[in-house]
Amino acid sequence: WTKRKKEMSSPPPSLRLSLPNGRIEITHPPSPDDDIPIHALYTHPKVLQSLPFWSPNTSLDEVTARREMRTQDPEHFRDFRIRHHGGGGGGDDGVLLGTVGYMFMSPENLSAEAGIVIAPEFHRSGYASEALYLLLEHGFAPLAEGGLEFNRVTFTTANTNVAMRAWLKNVLGATQESHLRQAWKGPGAEFIDATTYSVLSNEWFQGAKSRLKKRVDEAIAKTPKAT
C-alpha cells in the first residue's frame, strides 16, 4: 500500500499513450496551452447537455484553476488530453479532441472514477472508445508495467445521458450499481439524478478489454488513412 501510494503521488513527468495502429494519443500532464480550447469545450451547449451540473458561465480562470489543482494532486487525479495521432489517419496531428482521466483515485482501495469529454464534432467516430481503452488499459495494468493496478473503476453519468449509459452497458459491459437521486446540483434550482457503473480488474482482463479493443479496431479500420 505504501509503495502504491508513493507511485500514485509521484507520476512520471509525462505520459503519451497510444495504440500501434491508433488514430489518437492521450497525454499527461495537461498543458496550459489547452486551457482556452478546454474552456470552449466545457461551455459548448451540446457538452452541457451531458454535463448538466457544469455551469455555462464557467470562466477561463476557473478552467485554469481546475487544471492546476488537479495537476498538483497526483494522488487523486490524473488527467489526459486526447489528440489526433497522425499515424492512424483520421485528422491532423496534435488536434485537441477532448479530455479523459481519473479522479478520486484511492491507493487504499485500488479504485478510481473515470470520465471523458469529447468535442461534439468528433462524436460517433469511435474516438471515445479508443481514448477510454487507453485509459482503462493504463488503469488496470500492473505497477511494474507503468500502470495503476486498479481493482475497480467507476463511471458516474447523468441519468439523462442515454448515449453514455448505452456505451457503458453495451460496449464496455460495465455493471450498473446505483441510481443516485438528485445527486448533483445544477446551475439553476434543479437537482440532477445520476447513475453509477463499474468494471472490475478481473472483468477487464476476462472479456471487457477484448470486446472494447475489437470495437476500437473496427472504428480504426473504417478511418481513411492519412496521405
Provide an overview of this structure.
The protein is α+β, with helices and mostly antiparallel strands. 35% of the residues lie in helices and 28% in strands. The chain has seven helices and eight strands; from the N terminus they run αββαααβββαβαββα. The chain has helices spanning 2-9, 35-42, 45-50, 60-71, 127-140, 162-172, 201-221, and strands at 15-18, 24-28, 78-84, 96-106, 111-118, 152-158, 175-185, 191-200. It has an eight-stranded mixed β-sheet, with helices on both faces. A hairpin with a 4-residue loop joins strand 4 and strand 5 (111-118). It starts with a helix and ends in a 6-residue tail after the last helix. The mean pLDDT is 91.
The percentage helix is 25-40%
Question: How would you sum up the global shape?
Answer: globular
DSSP summary: helix tally: 7
The N- and C-terminal alpha carbons lie at a distance of 48 Å
Structural class call reads alpha+beta
The total beta strand count reads 8
Side-by-side strand order of the widest sheet:
1-2-3-4-5-6-8-7
Order of helices and strands: HEEHHHEEEHEHEEH
Largest sheet: 8 strands, mixed
Mean pLDDT: 91
Radius of gyration: 17 Å
Spans of 5+ residues with little confidence (pLDDT < 50)?
none
Strand proportion: 25-35%
Task: Set out the fold topology.
Elements: H1 2-9, E1 15-18, E2 24-28, H2 35-42, H3 45-50, H4 60-71, E3 78-84, E4 96-106, E5 111-118, H5 127-140, E6 152-158, H6 162-172, E7 175-185, E8 191-200, H7 201-221
Helix pairs in contact: 2-4, 5-7
